[in-house]
Amino acid sequence: MEGDGSDSLVTIKNIERELICPACKELFTHPLILPCQHSICHKCVKELLLMLDDSFNDVGSDNSNQSSPRLRLPSPSVDKIDRISRPGWKRNSLTPRTTTFPCPGCEHDVDLGERGINGLFRNFTLETIVERYRQAARAATAIMCDLCKPPPQESTKSCMDCSASYCNECFKIYHPWGTVKAQHEYVGPTTNFRPKILMCPEHETERINMYCELCRRPVCHLCKLGGNHSNHRVTTMSSAYKTLKEKLSKDIDYLIGKESQVKSQISELNLLMKETECNGERAKEDAITHFEKLFEILEERKSSVLKAIDASKKLRLDKFQTQMEEYQGLLENNGLVGYAQEVLKETDQSCFVQTAKQLHVRIQKATESLKSFRPAAQTSFEDYVVNTSKQTELLGELSFFSSGVDVPEINEEQSKVYNNALINWHHPEKDKADSYVLEYRKINRDEEMLSWNEIEVCGTSKVISDLESNCNYAFRVRAYKGSICSPCSRELILHTPPAPVFSFLFDEKCGYNNEHLLLNLKRDRVESRAGFNLLLAAERIQVGYYTSLDYIIGDVGITKGKHFWAFRVEPYSYLVKAGVASSDKLQEWLRSPRDAVSPRYEQDSGHDSGSEDACVDSSQPFTLVTIGMKKVFIPKSPTSNEPENRVLPMPTSIGVFLDCDKGKVAFYDMDHMKCLYERQVDCSHMMYPAFALMGSGGVQLEESISAKYLEYQENM
């Protein structure tokens, strides 16, 4: 038995890397089993959720970029941890509950569901192994008695029912013979205490007695009868235990029996690594040689082009110099004119005629050149501009010899940017690619290109976060088959919103008219029903009145900072007004509802001048633009020179940018991230996203791009 103990000690010491949490990179502490079957420390799950929670609550902040969830974070406060751990805890609309985070082990997104951390199983087996490893690592360190008076004695046994360690004397005192405590289960000294019976996280009073083969997790009988596993195939716990233990034992025996084969394969891998090292260096040398040849060709072409430009420049300058000298000769006492004046002094007729004939021809040419001045050469070098566009494109696609891996193509219609960027692509030979590498980089305003960021992706879509506001980003993707990669796809340029995305839902209480408006359960979509109530109001139309607008606002107000949000107006909508309004203005609108109002009496009806923004005051506590019948009505801006309002086709999605600090609001075409209209707005009071509908219509708030959004798109 002692020999077995020493063997197990060696084994325990050799499995350290299996006992390290992928999040904190330390030994597991109270590990939990995630739905993806990876384990993570209890405290690490809380820190990940708290970090994502804080990142969500920081919308609108200029410093809202958070660290990667895979980085170790400082321990959060106890009250916040308790708040997240507490079952049934929910947040208001401003801070919706965060239950999704990327698994640090496999990087797949994990959704904890409504129960959050309480829905996860504690990995007691792993916890026990970690404890044995700790004891092996600190063999000389004894576990002390928990009940002794100082100084404590070394413990001799631990009670699993009391979750405490005892020396011999204390154990006799606290577990007297003939009492119930004498029947407690005790083991050797340990600090790892776990319950005798596993209870169901979904039904806390029920024991775990079955195993769901589809979800690969233990369940209770209530889970099978009417819970999430009612239609799943389950087996008894004893059967699952026997089956899994047999499989695991067979696999372990197989690996042990193949020890010599593993050693030979390790030797082969060492040789392959050395060969790879040599081949890699040789490939680098070959690549350097090819690039040096390209550099030589470029230097040669550069020298040739510069010589041609210099030759043309010299020829033109010589022509200009000759022409200038001729014109300078026309000046009095200079050159040709001076020479002609000297010839006129000749008195011998024969000699004069002999010289004057040729001189007269030159004088006539100079006279004609004065009448029609024309430079002897061109100053432009347009014909000498080097066209490198084709070569630049070819060099950008410079890659290895074709390996049969086709180039993936980014789907521009399905790629978009909002709070994050969603990039979709398709590959003609999808089954032949093992993985993809998505590259992206920021493009500065002076067109300066920064280095590429790379992300390895297993699928054909990816959500990218932490992008800066109001910036252009370039995206491209390449496919990998083994160690061979395809050339990069064509670049896709996307412009991020001008400010962090502001998250809100429609308010179902303040001013919401449920007789005219229909709000969905998620409170991110509202429809105006032109039904029976509108029919009853139709009588007023005969006397020159119109039905009033039905208002609905966001459930979160804004007091400072820069914020951006987007929405879609259904194409069938008759009239929708959207924008921002102050709390005071909304109270004025909502406290004095009218069944019917005159379009000229209500300043924001949108019928008299095309928009309420046509009023004289350039800074007012609200701004709403009119949308309807597949058109957007852009009013004349107080600061522009445009003579009248504009009517534009309605974009697929419309964005609103509110800058409370500068008192400005702007409306954007989300398809091209182009500003359609901007004006001053009074932000001295709390501002709210505001909408108004008349007749049939619908407004859908733009959904934030996240991992769940990506999964939904893939399912669609």
Automatic annotation (TrEMBL):
Keyword Zinc-finger: yes
EC number: 2.3.2.27
UniProt entry keywords in alphabetical sequence: Coiled coil, Cytoplasm, Cytoplasmic vesicle, Cytoskeleton, Metal-binding, Repeat, Transferase, Ubl conjugation pathway, Zinc, Zinc-finger
UniProt catalytic activity: S-ubiquitinyl-[E2 ubiquitin-conjugating enzyme]-L-cysteine + [acceptor protein]-L-lysine = [E2 ubiquitin-conjugating enzyme]-L-cysteine + N(6)-ubiquitinyl-[acceptor protein]-L-lysine
UniProt xrefs under InterPro entries: B30.2/SPRY, B30.2/SPRY_sf, Butyrophylin_SPRY, ConA-like_dom_sf, COS_domain, E3_ligase_FN3/SPRY, FN3_dom, FN3_sf
RING-type domain residues: 21-72
Disordered, as annotated region: 597-616
Residue span(s) of domain B30.2/SPRY: 484-710
GO CC, any one term: cytoskeleton
Biological process, per Gene Ontology: acrosome reaction; spindle organization
GO molecular function per UniProt: ubiquitin protein ligase activity; zinc ion binding
Keyword Zinc among UniProt keywords: yes
Cellular compartments annotated: Cytoplasm, Cytoskeleton; Cytoplasmic vesicle, Secretory vesicle, Acrosome
Limits of the B box-type domain: 195-237
Predominant cellular place of this UniProt entry's protein: cytoplasm
Record's function text: E3 ubiquitin-protein ligase which mediates ubiquitination and subsequent proteasomal degradation of target proteins. Involved in chromosome segregation and cell cycle regulation. May play a role in the acrosome reaction and fertilization.
Family: Belongs to the TRIM/RBCC family.
Protein name as it appears in the record: RING-type E3 ubiquitin transferase
Species in which this protein is naturally found: Ovis ammon polii
